[in-house]
Protein: Tyrosine--tRNA ligase
Organism: Candidatus Cytomitobacter indipagum
Amino acid sequence: MNLLNWLESRKLIYQKTNESNLSDQLEKKQICAYLGADLTASSLHIGHLLPLRILKILSEHGCKSIFLFGRGTTMIGDPSLRTKERPMLSQEEIYQNMNNIKPQVDKLIKNVIYEDNANWLLNTNLIDFLREVGSKFSVNQMVNLETFKNRIENNNPLSFLEFSYPILQSYDFYHLNKNHGCNLQIGGSDQWGNIINGVHFIKKMTSKETYGITLPLLLKGGKKMGKSVGGAIWLDEKQTSVFDFWQFWRNLPDSDVEDYLLKFTDIPHEEIKDMVKNSINDAKKKIADYLTSWVHGEEKTKNAKEKSISIFENKNMNSLDEFKLDDKQFSNSEIKLTKLLVEIGLSDSASDAKRKIKNNSITVNSELIEKQDAVISKNDFDSEIIVGHGKKKKIKVVLAK
RNA sequence: GGAGGAAUGGUCGAGUGGUUAAAGGCAGCAGGCUGUAAACCUGCCGACGGUGUCGUCUACGUAGGUUCGAAUCCUACUUCCUCCA
């Protein structure tokens, strides 16, 4: 089976350009692929994993791979499929984000070339750019792009700043093509319009053929996996602990497990089907192991897994994270539970803690707390106490010496 | 250039002077049942607060104004839509 067919069989391809030529080039290893990332946050999140996996597969297949930091384009903000303008980030923030993200990519893929589109976008001369590049784009076609459809149909404002985004991304592709011979761009399914524009642009500029692939959206329970609000799972372990990262995959809905194993592992399909059918929980551990190892390494994965098994399967509270509570937090040898919850990180604020207590989700030493003004006295710490939120989050609290 | 309409919380969408922190849906969080799953049932869901069914603050495009009181009325501005030129 050739590479493209294999990718298809793994459901890793959503859309692609010129299939037969692309496949040929892949087999001849004459592909140089690039993946771009916006720098809107200080860490990558799980939504980036699938495109990175493709880049990694291509790289291991012998194709040159480029990871492009969108330091220039992030200053514009990709409007693709969005309903509102993004907030603008300062140059310093964007730069800082790049510095945080680079080590993450380093860990995920070897032999990748880094580029930063600020290097060529920030110093362009406007008139030259419009004459050279802008003249090649048809507004008539651009307004019909899926990318802008949402905005235009719903009458949401779309500024020229954002409208120019596909042009800049196309220019990136052209630039990489010129300097690295890059001829394949990969991206999420929302990138199709941007990618296809780049392919057309390069064709116009150089008559050369280039290719594009988009990936399917990751689903959660049949719905789009939201990376918004409470749901973001970050690759940075300071933002999402390794344990929580492992737990996230361990808790996937049954209906998604086959798809995730197919996309993220090399396990033969038959074997996956078998696992899902006969031991769904082992299958979930498999996917958790696989992805956590990739992102955080074997060692940390092993620890997270052991901890999970110890806590959830063996009910062994000794494995819990320990929080050392400072003496100063007590007044009259007592501490309010709401304050304690905030201290140990189970709540964002006293109000939040109260809400949680009201929801019957807070336990102390496995006893449900019903009173919002509950107080823990110092004597209770003769031994450790275990504070729980829901049935999945528990923290062991001891007095600091 | 002219006439009219619209802008509501993460999102969609009610609400046209006061019991409105603002109906309802979706998303999210939590509890029950389970398998650390789904479905289903229930609760929470602007923020903060030493803890009351109470207080403070913030919020209905932006900035002012009228009023004891405004998401609701007035003025200006911004953006979008429709029609006329």
User: Anything to note?
Assistant: Chain A has three domains: 3-217, 242-316, 322-399. Confidence is low (pLDDT under 50) at residues 226-230 of chain A.
